[in-house]
Amino acid sequence: MAGHGASLLLLLGLMPALLLAVRINGKGREVLHLAKGDSVKLGCPYVLEPEDNGPQGLGIEWIQITPERPGPENVFLSYHDHHVDYGSGSGLQDRVAFVQKDPSQYDASIRLADLQVSDTGTYQCRVKKNTVAVHEVIVTVQDKPAPPQCWIEGELIWGSSILLRCFSRETSTAVSYQWAKLADGYGGGHLPSGTIQGRAPGDLLIRSLSEVHTGVYQCRVTNRVGYSVCQLNVSPVPRGRQTGIIVGSILGSLLLLSLLGLLIWALICRYRRKECQRACSDCRSSTGGTMTRTCNVCTHGYAPHGISYMQCQHGDSDERAAALICNEGIRHQVACPAL
Questions:
Q1: Rg of the chain in Å (alpha carbons)
Q2: What is the pLDDT of residues 58-67, one digit of tens each?
Q3: How confident is the prediction for the chain on average, in pLDDT?
Q4: Dihedrals φ, ψ of 19, to 5°?
Q5: Which of 129, 128, 208, 217 is nearest to 165 (CA)?
Q6: How many CB atoms sit inside 10 A of residue 187's CB?
Q7: Following CA atoms 287, 292, 298, 303 in sequence, which dihedral angle do they give, to the nearest 10 degrees?
Q8: What is the separation, in whole angstroms, between the first and last Cα of the chain?
Q9: What is the predicted pLDDT for the residue at 238?
Q10: Rounded to an integer, what distance in angstroms lies between the CA atom of residue 117 and that of residue 104?
Q11: CB environment 144-162: b (16+ within 10 A), e (fewer)
Q12: What's the per-residue H, E or C state across the chain?
């Protein structure tokens, strides 16, 4: 009985010391998977017991522990006597801040912006009064999956088999691939019968193509922090129509070439017509303006040995005009024969 009383007295004597404690209202150790470029709030709310009124001042420290930085603890943010101090050498100084302007108001949470892969590590929040309370957050920063590439292998003909392929160049972490047939091009859907997983993670094999397989297929590449998608349009046709499509494509190409040829011919004719008009103007100038009316015909004469002979014909057959002969870029004026 005496021993029990002594233990009770010892416990009562220790109670003031037990009450003088800081307590962090956390969920224990947290594990976060975050995407590069995101922002995150690392929580650290705390409670000071009413009896904790000792002379020791309040101190807050945030410490980063990473495998890349062995050695002394890296205190990248701290608070003491209403003064905030940013550490050095962590690369976080410009991207970290306390959530509250005054962290002494029972909240030592911080916000970390523009996350980088190098920010991966363990973050400790230490709140010091008469005792020390510690809260840990394990942060893993990853890149989101790179936009995947999608393509089709095989002929889009009813009854044949095709392979839908999807590949992302994501190499830093494991990714998962998931195919879905969209309902009218919107939202996620299901896969019709005859579709099975291919050998590679991003492959989808469709056997015995039919009208039921027509539609838009979406490949979704996912990791722990995000996803990216690509889409393919599958439009199989009956085997007989495939020949018609090929013939139609050939005829369409020939028609396009014919139209292009007509356009080139029209441009050439327009150019020649302008050249003729210019030559007629020169013809009028060479006669000293004696022509009574505008030339109405412009023709190309015989042009041996690279000589271009242009003749301007006008209404008055008694008038004589000048013809232009261009030989090696030199313009000569000669008398025209009777028109």
A1: 44
A2: 899 999 988 7
A3: 76
A4: -75, -25
A5: 217
A6: 9
A7: -30
A8: 150
A9: 87
A10: 31
A11: bbeebebeeeeebbbeeeb
A12: CHHHHHHHHHHHHHHHHHHCCEEECCCCCEEEEEECCCCEEECCEEEECCCCCCCCCCEEEEEEECCCCCCCCEEEEEEECCEEEECCCCCCCCCEEECCCCCCCCECCEEECCCCHHHCEEEEEEEECCCEEEEEEEEEEECCCCCCEEEEECCCECCCCEEEEEECCCCCCCCEEEEEECECCECCCCCCCCEEECCCCCEEEECCCCHHHCEEEEEEEEECCEEEEEEEEECCECHHHHHHHHHHHHHHHHHHHHHHHHHHHHHHHHHHHHHHHHHHHHHHHHCCCCCCCCCCEEEECCCHHHCEEEEEECCCCCCCCEEEEEECCEEEEEECCCC
**How many CB atoms neighbour CB 297 within 10 A?**
12
pLDDT per residue as tens digits for the range 213-261: 999 999 999 998 999 999 999 999 887 655 556 667 788 888 888 889 8
Provide the pLDDT confidence category of residue 69 given band limits of 50, 70 and 90: low
d(CA 105, CA 172): 41
- pLDDT score for 267: 87
User: Taking residues 52-75, what's their average pLDDT?
Assistant: 78
In one-letter notation, the amino acid at residue 335 is A
Structure confidence by residue, pLDDT tens digits, 288-298: 544 444 444 44
Distances (CA, A) of 84 to 12, 80, 282: 38, 7, 90
Which of 9-13, 70-74, 85-89, 119-123 has the least mean pLDDT?
Answer: 9-13
Say how many CA atoms lie within 13 Å of 206 toward its Cβ: 29
Q: How confident is the model at residue 276 (pLDDT cuts 50, 70, 90)?
A: low
- The letter for the amino acid at 321 is A
Distances (CA, A) of 34 to 57, 226, 288: 35, 9, 89
